[in-house]
């Protein structure tokens, strides 16, 4: 009775606290129960229009969302508040609820209202990030999309809406990744991972314009096994022409280690070994000119590819070296770890040192890697490859890379494959 009286007299005579007492149990029960046929619009619409405060508005929307499945007028009411002008009167608290509960209500409203809500509120928020940044609402948007995209058998209209909205948000994300926004990129990656491979290829296509953002997303998908390691080929070929190579290598180092920790057929040891063998063949072809490089000198390109090789070996040889270099098992620190400091991802001085130290650690890491099964079966192949690179034309390798490769080769001299006379003679030039 009190609820109906409040619809007539408004907040001037009925305190908001009393209305809340009535609304809270109704909303709580509505989360797990479909009420009998009720004209929700006649009850909730006046409460939302009258100035009963943020909590009452949010409770009204919560009831409309949870009852939209069985009540057509609740769905209609919800649809009215998703489009202008009413959508502009929704509070931040109510909008946050709508965003995180997208999976509950999106199939109960018309496609045009769903798209209007996305254009006016979801996409508009990311377009406005260039001026002001609302981390909480941004996260709510992508969390809602992520949960909705995991629903089994969504309608074609809903799925098209989810994919289109995710793509537009991805395009609006800055290419330079701030560490404090890393969780936002990870959630967008989760949304993209639900799409077909062809859509992932199209949306995350690597180019010089979006290389950091696309690299981060693709490496996330690769390290989790969602995409095969073969995707790294195009990625590193494009990155070889980029000026900000240390950022790419730092992200590759993290992803290599994550791939090792994940149990998936695409990241298993045989797949990683196959990819690494393909990489050293590619490096050899570049060194001898059978695979040309563009927009960058030969020695610079080889320096980059050798750093990629070193990062993979360091990440896969043992656990101690990656941890000493600051590599973590997750992009985001755990709750009991220190939070990420502000700044661009992989752009701190310590990150640059980490990248350079991979080559320094290569001699020991490769020795450790080739001591393991099934890597040891290809020891001779790696020794031959090292010697072939050291015999490459003088202009192919920089002095630093040549020194590191020589040290790596010499450090393998205790292996049985190295002790053959032909190998020893070729390695030391006797």
Automatic annotation (TrEMBL):
Pfam families: Focadhesin
Annotated InterPro entries: Focadhesin/RST1 (IPR045163), Focadhesin_C (IPR021392)
Transmembrane segments annotated in the record for this chain: none
Domain Focadhesin C-terminal, chain residue ranges per copy: 10-430
GO BP term, pick one: regulation of post-transcriptional gene silencing
Domain of life according to the entry: Eukaryota
Protein name: Focadhesin C-terminal domain-containing protein
Organism name: Aquarana catesbeiana
